[in-house]
Design goal:
It is a single chain. This protein is an alpha+beta fold and about 230 residues long. It is about 35% helix and about 30% strand. The protein has eight helices and 13 strands. Helix 2 packs antiparallel against helix 3. The two termini are about 15 Å apart. The model has no long low-confidence stretch (mean pLDDT about 95).
């Protein structure tokens, strides 16, 4: 079961993975109210279970509550790759100094969890893997051994992260992402981009989270997140 961005971020917060503050909206008026609470510049983001939101006009900046309502009206009802936008995530905008990519997925061939990390975030990982495979650090986690702190350090070293402040924050996020992956019986946990702000804060700016359908009986709070309309 795929989760919307805002739902994935809700799970991230449960595992202490830092995310930007935001509010859910389903109407222009709700988007305006959300922007009033968040204050300052916000990002109005279409919530659909597919990629390509930005190119389709589903992610837009707003500098005021009135503009947030206008952007919401323009985005609601958009058809993005066959998915009609019915929900919006209104999030406080972030200043971005760097964009990284971090994911954890289940490698069926190796029967192990697989971390992938690169400093080239914000674009499709398939593009990085195809054109610059040397820029993509990969690391399997043996389920019998479980996650160990040295694995995060190795992943960061292979990706070329040499800033000590970033290393500490990203290593914590790597460890917590593994905890979320195992704890929620996930098949995919992806952060793209994982941003670094000008102040050096590392934060998940997006979330792709897929949970194993066969394990949903163990996670009723996640099972309740299923959007029946999106799957109909």
């Amino acid at each position: 079961m795929d989760l919307y961005e805002y739902q994935g971020k809700e799970v991230f917060k449960q595992y202490a993975i830092p995310v930007s503050e935001g509010r859910l909206a389903t109407t222009p008026d709700e988007a305006r109210a959300a922007a009033e609470v968040l204050r300052g510049q916000v990002v109005v983001k279409a919530q659909v279970l597919t990629g390509g939101r930005g190119k389709a006009g589903g992610i837009q900046l707003a500098n005021s509550p009135e503009e947030a309502a206008e952007k919401a009206e323009a985005i609601l009802g958009l058809d993005i790759r066959g998915h009609v936008v019915r929900k919006l995530w209104v999030e406080r905008s972030s200043e971005i100094a760097k964009e990284y990519y971090l994911s954890l997925t289940f490698d069926r061939g190796a029967k192990q969890a697989l971390f992938m990390f690169t400093k080239e975030g914000g674009i499709d990982i398939e593009e990085v893997a195809a054109e610059r495979p040397e820029a993509l650090a990969r690391l399997h986690v043996d389920p019998l051994e479980g996650f160990q702190p040295y694995q995060a350090r190795r992943l960061l070293y292979e990706a070329g992260i040499d800033d000590a402040q970033e290393q500490k924050q990203i290593a914590r996020i790597v460890e917590r992402l593994y905890a979320a992956f195992v704890g929620a019986d996930a098949m995919l946990c992806e952060i793209n981009p994982l941003i670094v702000t000008p102040d050096g804060e590392v934060r998940a700016l997006d979330s792709k989270f897929t949970v194993d359908d066969n394990a949903l009986y163990k996670h009723p709070h996640i099972a309740e997140m299923r959007d029946v309309e999106a799957y109909s």
